[in-house]
């Protein structure tokens, strides 16, 4: 079960009164800490870092301007 599913179930336990708000906070913090550990293990290929050193990627689809001018009927 993934962290998102565990988080959803935890929310259901809170809303149904099975756990207190303090228990919810403690358990949700533990779930998020575990999710952070899992995310830190994700390998990012070196080529991806070289292509987008800022963390952003831009895709240029075309260079032709296809702007359409529509007459404003209120003029």
Written overview of the protein:
It comes from Actinophytocola gossypii. This is SHOCT domain-containing protein. With 75 residues, the chain is mostly helical. The chain has a domain at 3-51. The protein has three helices and no strands. It has helices at residues 3-15, 21-40, 46-51. Helix 1 runs antiparallel to helix 2. The longest helix is centred in the middle third of the chain and has 20 residues, at 21-40. It starts with a helix and ends in a 24-residue tail after the last helix.
What brief labels describe this structure?
3 helices; 75 residues; mainly alpha; single chain; elongated; SHOCT domain-containing protein
Number of strands: 0
Which assembly state applies to the chains in this document?
Answer: single chain
Low confidence ranges: none
Mean pLDDT equals: 79
Give the SSE string.
Answer: HHH
How far is it from the N-terminal to the C-terminal residue, by CA?
A: 61 Å
Amount of helix: 40-55%
User: What is the gyration radius calculated from CA atoms?
Assistant: 24 Å
Instruction: State the major sheet.
Output: none
Instruction: Sum up the overall morphology in one term.
Output: elongated
Beta-strand percentage range = under 5%
Annotation field: number of helices: 3
Class by alpha and beta content: mainly alpha
Q: What can be said about this structure in brief?
A:
The protein has 75 residues and is mainly α.
How would you summarize the topology of this molecule?
Blueprint: H1 3-15, H2 21-40, H3 46-51
Helix pairs in contact: 1-2
């Amino acid at each position: 079960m993934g962290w998102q599913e565990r988080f959803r179930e935890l929310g259901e336990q809170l809303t149904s009164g099975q756990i207190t708000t303090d228990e919810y906070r403690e358990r949700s913090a533990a779930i998020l800490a575990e999710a952070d550990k899992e995310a830190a293990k994700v390998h990012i290929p070196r080529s991806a870092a070289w292509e987008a050193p800022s963390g952003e990627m831009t895709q240029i689809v075309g260079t032709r301007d296809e702007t359409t001018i529509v007459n404003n009927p209120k003029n």
